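Sat 14:20. Reprocessing the chain from the morning session after the first attempt stalled halfway. Input below, unchanged.
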Amino acid sequence: MAVTPLRVARRAGVYSDDVLGAAVADLDDDLVELAFLCVAAQERLTQLETELANACPYRQTREALARATASAQRRYRAIASQLHVLRTEAHLAPCSEPLVAHLAAERASLADRLRAEQSMLAGLLAAPDWQSPAFLSSLAPAAGRQAGRIRAHWNDYKRDRHGDAADYEQRYAERMIDGPPGTRALLTGCGMASFTTILWCLEAEGKLGRPVLAGQGLYHETRLLLEQVLPGRVRFVDETDTAALLEAVDASRPSALFLDSLSNTRWMSAPDLPAVIECLRGADTYLIVDNTCLSVSCQPLALAGESVRVVVFESLLKYAQLGLDRANAGVIVARRRDAEMLDAYREHLGTNIPDVAVHALPPPHRGVLERRLARLERNAIHLAERLEERAPAGVAIVYPGIGAHRGRGAARLPFRGGCVSVVFGEWGCRQRLLVSEALAEARRRGVALHAGSSFGFDTTRMYLAAAQAECGTPFVRIAAGTEHRLQLEALADALAVAVEACA
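Finished this time. Tokens:
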């Protein structure tokens, strides 16, 4: 993803036409994303309308859901009409600060409405269905929209598996994953549910009999579970030192190697996955990759082909939800034989995704997600560069490819993530103070900023990450949002002032 350097120039109190035009273009892209969500919802409601006759054997239920579906369709049509009007203004109206402010306010309002509608849509789609659908009935069926698709002892208990997840998994594998034929996706209740499914499966199947290696930058919760489940059997290595990592692989012939494609730690380390995969060719080592921070921009299965046993997982609560933050969800991606084994353990562990959560996810669309990732990366780079310019001595601003830090190896990645770390020389109260000071400064300037966990949102967030972790060092994470260029400049100033005040 190409990222254009961002510098907003203002002359005599007025932004230049090119900067205003860039802000309007940003907002137009945002409106396209909302239109995608709107169209996808309308298509799903249209399908529901055709399914109600068979899904609801009782007239009053059928009529109630038909009215609710028609009402939702009207609301979505009204939103789609508003989006069309706003896009017309963005294309035809002269660029100006009032236009940018108007488009930004309307976009934010419609995004919030669509976020609420997404939950109602999910509930409506699931309303005719059962968690334990009947596969046969003597009179009225009890399978909802899945009537005719229920098999005894296979998908007649949704904790095990269900058709809504299966349909999404197929689309996800086809549209979001580059890999060898037969690659499968398995949805889970969250990213950690994906990891626990993988870990327990490998351990229970006797796949971890030899030493296990893991990157030092592993997400703190996955690292803790590895240490607890495999006490004394896990060796942590510096994944940024490629030579040392490959030497450790050659020396120990590990049964499994656990890595984050981009770590969710203060230094945001990134391993050289192509080199690791080449080293593992022909071996029976499992390579387990947490791909949450890079999402579709990183495709380990495509790199591995058929000769390396790669299992990839990702939290779908982050980038994949396009900022909606509506449902916990995770996904495991693996070649068919490994996926079948993992599917069985997902069933026994109860880590399958609920049907309502599937409905709350945006449909998988790689182009839409990649465009959003490019915006998040652009904004993260700008914030990192501005903060690094103004950060006092003793304060490190960490972003892959920016400055001299351990995350620099990730600069070659097509997407370098949407988060920036602020690291003080020593742990203390300044990290906690920075979050509150940044919120106060943003409030004084009328700049939108949230304090909260996770990343991938429309509005930038700050968080004291790993603050209560049993392993890992706490740090301040700035999760860039999708702000347009004028908003981004004001945000960068507010954050820089806060960092200076807390140094």
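The longest helix spans residues 17-55.
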